[in-house]
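Quick review question:
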């Protein structure tokens, strides 16, 4: 049985106690990625982070293969809880081969995948907006094997295991009570889902009467500090909720109604007590900050998206401006990197600053967007080297109806993408990308 060997190189500055991960892994290898279900082996210590039924999924792997098939790939992978909550992220790169197994003299053909997993860095100085301290693997080795039959689009069943070390997020290790949001960014009309995890060995008690009369508080960052963003209008005494040891409670904010948030930076708060233990001040836990961004104006079928939700700092950002209408539209260049889209980076105060404005002294050029067409934009364009500072970014542009040369310009429509992350990468990591 093949094993996924994980070696964590833990910087002393992080001060986190590493946990031993030891899990059986089995699942499917398909044309576009890998999906594994994890089950704990006897010495596993990561049950609070990754209980049985957790998954590792690497989708959209860029596989450069020959006719064997055989080749190298690179992409992103996610360790998730059984409920689908992301727990750890990883950059995945390695090779895939099909042929007679090297471990026996039989002629049975097998599929063999071997990969290195590197962390998507999530630790950054506090002033950088959009970052959150998460669980991390600093180095990993993944190998899985399975029968060659059915290795096409339908996929083939593979099996391996995972053994190594994991470092939990600060304040999020086993034995502690934690709270986290299900996402790092939301729209103004999105429901915020909170996960309260009782990682202690005792039942805890929480009282409602917090945000929207739930057991979870919601705070928004202001110039005066963190302030309550929602309360409870019910004129009654708070009611208790028991959370047994090892249990996770999911709380929707707001529960049962459609929200409309004020854009800004938020965090979740959780007060609790342990029966039989007296505390002068109730213990509390806070989530990592998350962003609620303003909803772009109605685009009537015009969208601006990115190829992924996250990029390394040395990767090109790819955006897609799509006209889903029946009308001919026009936009202009002279935006970031002299393209047709603006690249904007969130600042510590929540504002958005333009990145790499166009400095060419030449007239602005109009670019047409035909009905039901899509334009792809790389930032920066080839052959310029890509180097974007870590942080939270978004794309934006303006479009307007195509009119005759002498005719009046129609109403301008501003289009904004969803926020996405640019992650730092290790300077000492070897370059394993293929040519």
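Suggested answer, residue by residue:
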């Amino acid at each position: 049985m093949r094993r996924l060997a994980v070696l964590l190189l833990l910087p002393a500055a992080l001060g986190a106690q590493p946990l031993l991960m030891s899990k059986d892994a089995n699942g499917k290898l398909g044309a576009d990625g890998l999906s594994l279900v994890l089950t704990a082996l006897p010495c596993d210590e990561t049950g609070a982070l990754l209980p049985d039924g957790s998954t590792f999924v690497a989708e959209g792997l860029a596989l450069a293969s020959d006719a064997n098939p055989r080749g190298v790939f690179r992409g992103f992978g996610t360790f998730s809880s059984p409920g689908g909550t992301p727990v750890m992220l990883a950059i995945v790169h390695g090779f895939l081969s099909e042929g007679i197994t090297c471990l026996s003299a039989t002629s049975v053909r097998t599929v063999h995948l071997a990969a290195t997993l590197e962390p998507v860095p999530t630790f950054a100085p506090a002033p950088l907006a959009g970052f959150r301290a998460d669980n991390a693997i600093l180095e990993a080795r993944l190998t899985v094997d399975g029968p060659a039959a059915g290795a096409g689009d339908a996929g083939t069943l593979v099996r391996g295991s995972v053994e190594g070390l994991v470092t939990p997020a600060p304040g999020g290790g086993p034995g502690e009570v934690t709270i986290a949001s299900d996402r790092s960014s939301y729209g103004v009309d999105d429901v915020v889902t909170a996960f309260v995890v009782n990682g202690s060995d005792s039942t805890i008690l929480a009282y409602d009467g917090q945000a929207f009369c739930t057991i979870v508080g919601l705070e928004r960052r202001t110039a005066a500090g963190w302030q309550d963003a929602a309360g409870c209008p019910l004129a009654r005494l708070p009611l208790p909720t028991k959370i047994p040891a090892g249990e996770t409670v999911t709380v929707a904010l707001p529960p049962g109604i459609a929200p409309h948030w004020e854009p800004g930076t938020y965090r979740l708060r959780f007060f609790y007590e342990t029966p039989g233990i007296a505390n002068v001040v109730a213990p509390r836990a806070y989530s990592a900050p998350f962003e609620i961004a303003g909803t772009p104006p109605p685009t009537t079928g015009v969208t601006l998206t990115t190829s992924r939700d996250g990029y390394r700092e040395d990767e090109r950002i790819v955006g897609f401006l799509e006209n889903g209408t029946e009308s001919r539209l026009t936009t202009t260049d002279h935006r970031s990197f002299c393209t047709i889209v603006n690249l904007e980076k969130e600042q510590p105060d929540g504002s958005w600053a333009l990145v790499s404005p166009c400095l060419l002294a030449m007239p602005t050029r109009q670019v047409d967007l035909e009905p039901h067409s899509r334009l792809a934009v790389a930032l920066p364009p080839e052959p310029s080297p890509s180097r974007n500072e870590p942080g939270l970014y978004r794309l934006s542009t303006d479009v307007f109806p195509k009119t005759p040369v002498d005719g009046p310009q129609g109403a301008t429509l501003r289009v904004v993408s969803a926020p996405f992350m640019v992650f730092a990468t290790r300077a000492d990591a070897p370059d394993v990308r293929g040519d």
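Why it works: The CA atoms of residues 94 and 115 lie 4 Å apart. Residues 1-15, 122-133, 295-299, 428-435 have pLDDT under 50 and may be disordered.
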